[in-house]
Structure formats: structure tokens, C-alpha cells
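Handoff note, outgoing to incoming analyst
You'll be picking up this chain. Sequence as last confirmed:
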Amino acid sequence: MSPVPFPYKLVATDLDGTLLRGDDTVSERTREALAAVTAAGAAHIIVTGRAVPWTRNVLDDLGYTGIAVCGQGAQVYDAGAHRLLTSVTLDRQLAGLALSKLEAEVGPLALAASRDGVDGDVLFGPGYRVQEGLPALYLEDTSAVWSAPLNKLYIQHPAMDDDTLVRVAREVVGSLVDVVMAGPGIVEILPLGLTKATGLSLAARRLGVKAAETIAFGDMPNDIPMFAWAAHGVAMANAHPELKAVADEVTTSHQEDGIAVVLERLLGAA
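Most recent structure output, in case you need it:
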């Protein structure tokens, strides 16, 4: 019996808040749905804001051996071979200028940085709140952040909420760098023009797949460019309002197998 036809050749899924449940696991139902679409001839690719060092162990635990897009599109990573295929770094002089201009406007910021490479450290300074369970090295003196190539900076403000910080940062330094919100407490400074769509388009080209053949799933504003690139964008029920506003549809939450709900319907199995 031949597999049920599936209308897309590529399924792109964000990781946190989308593919992963709150306990950092993938449900059996979602695993089965993804296995069914790959059996039907589609490829599955993970597209995450996490840099490779914060993604690698998760992918290994999932048994994921394909290509992953990491670091907000900066890194295309071969999970099976544990090696980078492409990597884009942040201009440190430009980033330092942007940070100085922003702090002149809003006051001191708590800072963290992701160093380039498969084993690149994530460094964080005084006052920065790192998500529980993610490995990072504390720096009392954040000047050491600038001593090696970086993929991105993370910033937090002691009083501003994430949405306000992103809006103000874009107004002040948006001509120098890109600023995105990737999750609660995760506001990032990236190379200008770099998005998840950048890395996804590179990875799709390697797989011989076009944007018109892609369905994408996500939950945060940093997924907006990926939705704009793909033929069909699906926001989770737990998604940020900005992403829901541009999504083609909204599914159930990451806790309620939202990816599987859509894939099963498209396979005709629901």
C-alpha cells in the first residue's frame, strides 16, 4: 500500500514552544505524525533560535540526524555528522556600537552572547537571567564577550518588558542590527538582514525543496520571516499575538500536539 499523499515536501518546525512540550520532550503522537509525513516523501527540518551548542543535545535525544537551522538562521547544522555547514557571525564592532547607542537611550542592559561554532560557549554577565537548564558561563567583566566571533547578543532590561525593549531597540539601532524576540526574556541582537528564513532557504536549497513546497510551524515573532517565506504558516495556540496575526492558521498548543493535529489532517488521517 503506497503512503497517503502529502501536499508539502518540507515541514519546518520551530523547537521551543512548538515541537517541544514544556518538559522539553516531543509527544509520541507528534513523533508518529512526523514519521508519517517523512514516509510520504516530505522532509522535516528543525528551525530554532537556539545556537548549535544549545540545540545539539536536544537533537541527539530526539534521534534527529537531518539538517537543522540554528541561531535564528545563522547556522545550518548537520545533526547526524555534528558539524556546521554554514555559519554567519555578528560584526562585533557594529554590535558594540549598537549596544552603546541603545544603553544611552534606555540605560544599562544585562548582556549575554553566543560564541560561534559547534562548541561555542554562551556567556552571560551580571543581572542576565539565563533560562533554567541551559549551559552558560558567567562573566563578571563582560568586556571578554568581544574577544571571539559571535553569532548574536542577548539583552534584558531591568524594567522594560520584552515587547517594549524590542520596539525601542528597533527604533534606536534598527539601521545597524536586527532585533528579535525569540521567547520570554529572550531579546536578541543579530546581523542586519539575518532571519530564520535566511537559514531555512539555504537548508531547503540543499534538500532541493522550494518555499512553495514548505509548511512551517512556530510560536514567536522571530518565526514571522519563516512564515513569510513558506507557503503555509501555522501558529501554535500558545503563540505570540504578532505571529498569530500573520499565520495562515492557528492550531492547538505545543502541549496539545498542535503539529500532529495539522499533519494528521493533511494526511487524511484525522
